[in-house]
């Protein structure tokens, strides 16, 4: 049981500073995401890796992975915030139709 807690704490110690730095440099993350919830979600996600697998991931690679996840989390649901007119413009742009 101590090993599980220890690994959990190791993940928190490794992931938290990365998330904090990424949040500092990105206002979208600050507006759209809850930093504490994101850290918790990432700890659960990366906790599926064995400690050995996780330790093999280089810091630069881990930063890139976490940043990609944050981008996805920040923009998912963005379309829900659009008005019907904005959705029509978005759909036209995606389909390559002229925007009216």
- Main beta sheet: none
N-to-C series of helices and strands:
HHHHHH
Count of alpha/pi helices: 6
- Give start-end ranges of low-pLDDT stretches: none
Shape annotation: elongated
So what's the oligomer here? Answer: single chain
Report the C-alpha radius of gyration, rounded: 18 Å
Say how many strands there are. Answer: 0
Q: How much of the polypeptide forms β-strand, as a percent range?
A: under 5%
Nearest-integer average pLDDT = 90
Give the helix level as a range of percent. over 70%
User: What structural category characterises the helix and strand content?
Assistant: mainly alpha
Termini distance? 62 Å
What topology does this entry show?
Blueprint: H1 2-24, H2 27-32, H3 35-46, H4 51-56, H5 59-75, H6 84-95
Helix pairs in contact: 1-3
Written account of the structure:
The protein has six helices and no strands. The chain has helices at 2-24, 27-32, 35-46, 51-56, 59-75, 84-95. Helix content is 76%, strand content 0%. The chain has 100 residues and is mainly α.
Structural descriptors:
100 residues; 6 helices; mainly alpha; single chain
Summarize the structure.
By secondary structure, the chain is an all-alpha fold. Helix content is 76%, strand content 0%. It has helices at 2-24, 27-32, 35-46, 51-56, 59-75, 84-95.
């Amino acid at each position: 049981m101590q090993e599980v807690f220890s690994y959990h704490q190791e993940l928190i110690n490794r992931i938290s500073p990365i998330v904090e730095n990424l949040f500092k440099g990105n206002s979208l993350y600050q507006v759209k995401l809850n930093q504490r919830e994101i850290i918790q979600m990432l700890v659960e996600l990366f906790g599926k890796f064995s400690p050995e697998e996780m330790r093999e991931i280089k810091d630069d690679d881990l930063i890139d992975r976490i940043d990609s996840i944050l981008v996805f989390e920040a923009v998912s649901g963005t379309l829900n915030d659009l008005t019907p007119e904005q959705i029509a413009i978005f759909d036209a742009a995606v389909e390559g139709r002229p925007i009216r």
